[in-house]
Design the sequence.
């Protein structure tokens, strides 16, 4: 399906030579990687938002104090920031890898 693969039969073996990706294909792969990275970041933020709502409900129900709420929110934000940063780092490495191949 548009991959420019030409299988060759060699006795009992089918060989499929895979051509090197063109610059255009590499750039589209980089865009796809960036899109998936952004989706991952959005999902992380959505999980953070859901957790924030739960801990605020717990505080309203008097299961948490204001201090505990603040501490948990801060820890949750730190975790979210760390994982968003890791997603960005992995994406940057993958982009570099794709473009240098």
Sequence:
């Amino acid at each position: 399906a548009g991959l420019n693969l030409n299988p060759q039969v060699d006795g009992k073996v089918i060989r499929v030579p895979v051509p090197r990706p063109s610059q255009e294909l590499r750039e589209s792969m980089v865009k796809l990687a960036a899109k998936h990275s952004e989706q991952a970041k959005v999902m992380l933020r959505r999980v953070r938002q859901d957790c924030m709502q739960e801990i605020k409900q717990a505080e309203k129900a008097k299961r948490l104090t204001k201090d505990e709420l603040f501490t948990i929110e801060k820890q949750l934000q730190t975790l979210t920031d760390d994982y968003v940063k890791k997603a960005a780092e992995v994406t940057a490495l993958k982009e570099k890898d794709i473009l240098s191949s």
The CA atoms of residues 29 and 98 lie 8 Å apart. Helices lie at 23-60, 66-100. Strands lie at 8-10, 13-15. The first helix runs from residue 23 to 60.
